[in-house]
Amino acid sequence: MNYKIFGQKDFEAVTHIIGDTERVLYRENINEEYSHDELGGTECYPDIVVRAVSTEEVSAVMKYACENNIPVTPRGSGTGLVGGAVPINKGIVMDLSLMNHFLELDEENLTVTVEPGVLLMELSKYVEEHDLFYPPDPGEKTATIGGNINTNAGGMRAVKYGVTRDYVRGLEIVLPNGNIVSFGGKVVKNSSGYAMKDLIVGSEGTLGIITKAILKLLPLPKKAISLLIPFPSLEQAIGTVPLIIKSKTIPTAIEFMQRQTIMDAEEFLGKKFPDNQSDSYLLLKFDGNSTEEIEASYDRVAKICLEQGAIDILISDTEERNDSIWKARGAFLEAIKASTTYMDEVDVVVPRNKVSEIVEFSHKLQDQVGVRIKSFGHAGDGNLHAYILKDDLSEEEWEKRLALAMEEMYKKANELRGQVSGEHGIGYAKKPYLKESLDPEIMGIMRGIKMAFDPKNILNPGKVCQ
What we know:
Layout: H1 8-18, E1 24-26, E2 48-51, H2 55-68, E3 72-75, E4 92-95, E5 102-106, E6 111-114, H3 120-128, E7 132-133, H4 145-151, H5 158-161, E8 168-174, E9 180-184, H6 196-200, E10 209-216, E11 218-219, E12 223-231, H7 234-246, E13 253-258, H8 259-269, E14 280-288, H9 291-307, E15 314-316, H10 319-330, H11 332-338, E16 343-346, H12 355-369, E17 372-378, E18 383-389, H13 395-415, H14 431-437, H15 440-453
Parallel strand pairs: 2-4, 3-4
Antiparallel strand pairs: 1-2, 5-6, 6-10, 7-11, 8-9, 8-10, 12-14, 12-15, 13-14, 13-17, 16-18, 17-18
């Protein structure tokens, strides 16, 4: 694609649109962070960064970009892991992090309307102060809601409550031509034509720029209790999960972890985990409106776990114990990152009953490829996070072994009828694996959708299906 080379006249035009030179970064004033995302494997500097504060600004800049054939990459906190917010074709980065306002809390319709730059942790805190609950719980709490919607982020509560898509009622979008449209709204049901809102959710900023979101809320559960359950083997731990789900007692979260990952987290945090003696663990959370209600639920699940060979049932029924366990779980990624020089991630999702098979496969793959692979994940929804570690490998050797490990992991996931990404998206880094895993006709349909929204291919070009 031949995009216009961004020059001084374009800088002056964009600055005139914004009217505030402090919110337009150009050339040497562009911070290094705008050239990459959290993982850092894909890097490219934009020509200019616009820190927008309104839908109207986003619209005006997009109109200019469309008229002049300049690529635009939307960006929130930059916490993505697949290069989705990296401007690989240069042009304009549209930073939406200053659009971080709560616009309306509608307690009658149980919705909250926010701008895309609101952080996940701010949203959770805000609605909880009103005795309400936003269930999606991705691990990165400093991610923006816009980013969560763009990747259809999941998180630990997905097993009971679902993913981000299930809580998006309406979206205001700036299209690639600069026009402003709205999809969905506060209505609970909607059979009015194609599900346009749901096309935007998970589209990774390739179809439109989210400038407002109406999100569904629930009443806040009053209590939460966690169970840490050690098992002699991962196979026994994972094999118990389908039985838990079938018991009609669905926990809020079902996580799996292994001893080595726990020890990494202990070292990283400088704190002891309640137990690190067993090979594998399930970590379950239950929520509800009373201790009695939750106890009735976890008693049934505890019995199932013991019948399947669990060594013990460790109950965390105080806020302090709960915090210590979930803080360690939340530190797994950073702990693994701190233990190596660089890493890349596989975010596959497989049927729940195949999780142990793909984890065991990743263990064998370490020896086959000659790299360390650390994994943990959401046993309740089959989403595995496997991290391939560079350690002291040379760049050339790393690239070779990483490519082989990735190829084998995605091939195995495909064999198990899984998908390339459970929650982090495709972005730029995972495009080859998506192409390999999907029918060419499906890829063609995706490209057709992109063309319908963005015939000039200026919005986050080169991502997902291109």
